[in-house]
Design goal:
mainly beta, single chain, seven-stranded antiparallel sheet
Length: 147
């Protein structure tokens, strides 16, 4: 579908990003760990782009998978810890996925911690004439409960 430069266009995108991975901590000690990550990610997006004045619309769904490889580490300093993770994979001209996260935790008890950090996710893909480039980044905060 082609839309002209000054056409009124309305768009809607909805989707999810899912992942599963296994982490093997090959260096472990009382002060932290260093590990390797292997896994997969899935991007699931539904899009709607329309020009209501011209009664044109395009609906599309994208579901794509990618393997990932990465590293993870955590360092303990008393009741504080600092961790980071970098993972991703490139499929050449077909696309790539890259994730980076760094965060700190304050451990209130053995089972409860508050966390704050920064996360960046970059996805890029190409399939024939269709292509996409998504970048999501920002601060995150949370509470961790270990059972």
């Amino acid at each position: 579908t082609e839309f002209q430069r000054f056409d009124r266009v309305v768009s809607s995108f909805k989707g999810g990003y899912y992942g599963a991975s296994y982490e093997w901590d090959f260096v472990r000690g009382s002060r932290g760990y260093l590990g390797a990550i292997i896994g997969a990610r899935m991007l699931d997006i539904d899009s709607l782009v329309s020009a209501p004045d011209k009664a044109q619309r395009e609906i599309n769904s994208v579901r794509t998978y990618s393997p990932i490889l990465g590293v993870s580490s955590r360092v303990y300093a008393g009741r504080l810890s600092l961790e980071n993770e970098f993972a991703g994979f490139s499929l050449g001209s077909r696309g790539s996925v890259w994730e980076f996260e760094i965060s700190g935790r304050a451990h209130i008890s053995d089972r409860l911690a508050v966390e704050g950090g920064y996360r960046s996710l970059k996805l890029k893909g190409e399939d024939g004439p269709d292509n996409g480039d998504i970048s999501i980044k920002g601060w995150n905060f949370g509470l961790e409960l270990s059972l």
